[in-house]
Design brief:
Number of domains: 5
Largest sheet: 6 strands, mixed
CATH architecture of the largest domain: 3-Layer(aba) Sandwich
Helix content: 25-40%
Strand content: 25-35%
CATH class of the largest domain: Alpha Beta
Distance between the termini: 75 Å
Number of strands: 30
Bound molecules: guanosine-5'-diphosphate
Shape: flat
Amino acid sequence: MEISSLAREFGLAPGQVIGVLNELGIEHDSEKIEADADTVELLQMELKGLKGSKVISIAPGVTPRDVAKLLGVAPQEVQKMLMLKMKVMATLTTSLKDDVAELLVSSLGYTLNWATPKPKVVAKPKVEPKAQGGAQLRPPVVTILGHVDHGKTSLLDYIRKANVAGKEHGGITQHIGAYQVETGDKKIITFLDTPGHAAFTAMRARGAQVTDIAILVVAADDGIMPQTIEAISHVKNAGVPMIVAVNKIDKNNANPDQVLSQLTQHEVVPESFGGQTITCPVSALTGEGIPHLLEMIALQAEIMELKADPKADFKGVVIEAKLDRGRGPVATILVQDGTLRIGDSVIIGSTSGKIKAMTDYRGERLKEAGPSVPVEILGLDEVPGAGESVENIGDERTSRLEAEQRQIAKRAKEYSVKVKRASLRDLRAQMTAGEVKDLNLIVKADVQGSVEAVRGMIEKIENEEVSVKIIHFGVGTVTESDVLLASASNGIVIGFNVKPEPGAKKEAEKEKVEIRTYTIIYELIEDIEAAVKGMLAAKFEEEHLGTVECRVAFNLSRHGKVAGCHVTEGKIQRNCSVRVRRGKDLVFEGKVATLKNVKQDVREMFAGQDCGVTFDGWEDFKKDDIIEAYELVQVN
Ligand code: GDP
């Protein structure tokens, strides 16, 4: 492909195209490039984004001939410009001084940006010395939480500016949703850039536990506030260790000691009070105490022995994603295990793609990224959702096919199966099915007095088999973040004399979270008691559905093993329970995962029909196995 024709196509100077080629690391000579279709596509995407730009990168020491070539003008024109307008005598092959080159380029209508030969940066997996096996210590991933205006953003900004890893590369960081910093003794820490417990719990609600350590920011001049309490509940519920940063200690009215004693009232006991929680006085304004905070994070990480294997299968999670006008879908991925490389095919939920470019938080292009490294990637077909997991399951075609399958499955699920969440009415069934063991409640009430009253009475409900747990309580309306917490912990939200906010209602519908509101305390307690007792009283009986014979075991590479079966009597249903017998032996007891008629997913198959069956977590079936299908029916 000709460089000059590409330049014409995008209204750019040939030198601008060459600049992009160099930046992308695409091999080329001064006239042509030889690249595969994917690389060309990436190049075109980048050039499109540059359209109309008049900035050109040129290395020092250029000659008038070089300038002519890079700008796509005749050499004579350049010489004329030099001699007549700038009064500079130079042959076509004289190296120009920097200021002359700058003036020349700007006279020809461009802005010169001196190109410095960039060191090729390959993100080495930021890991500590090798541990046993393939797993190595990896940097901790940290989230900052706390009440509004207590300084979460300021703290993140200060840490980013002062400690960003590899500052020597320029120090300017890009906002990609996460960044890495280096502590005084060269330990790496990954910070997630979206502070607050809503984001933290939203990720968890989608099944992604990304954070290793939570930093709770409490302003020393303001103390514990409602969102501080919320944050504590969210962190505790996630089971993530917490370090408290007592911020704004530079202020005259700062009272860090008071913050520490307030913390104890919320079952967060600082080390200085004989507890386990590390607390660090800091100022996000002056930077005081921040090196110590970073050291404490590194120490906590050491204790936790967080490990990942750069050689393992790749696994990651989407931190954030957006549609960029020029570049298409852009996503920030946090590598959790293994290594992500340019050219890898990935699948994210029901989206797939091939990584065409990766940049880090410094804007550096990477060829690979190891555990705990956040990278921005290009090359996805669609914008994925934050919190979705990223996998590498094979080549581009396999990923695309799998993504299509997931898309179909997702749509089918939206239409048919409801997401099962705890609800008071269904508690019995869910309990018996092993889906609920704890009844997790989030209690919101109009005033502190009612919160305490409701809490006191709920805590008195005793039961041997189900533990009723209040995972968060507070004064005020039911908020979106309450619903997210309920969703992440399969809980129910109880409102006493308060209503849900509109946003919370919407979120609850989406996440299928139950919000129950009461105005009479005894009704509230009665309902919970009845639900809990009901769980114990519920009785289930087995109802026989049918008998199925396994005639052949297929091995389909993409779907694993499938049992080719014939229904000899009655019927078999998708998701029904089964017992599989081989002669006299019982070889499996569990559930049907998928049921197919040829390639079509079906709900049930009847006597005389042939079908393909897969089982939940079991593939060792053999020809002549007999499958008894049944379901559990509630009898009271
Ligand atoms: P966020 O809502 O928790 O993200 O809080 P911000 O980072 O936006 O900070 C809220 C306000 O507090 C801003 O005006 C900051 O300049 C100020 N602030 C944050 N940290 C400090 C600090 O350590 N000392 C002082 N004096 N002001 C601070």
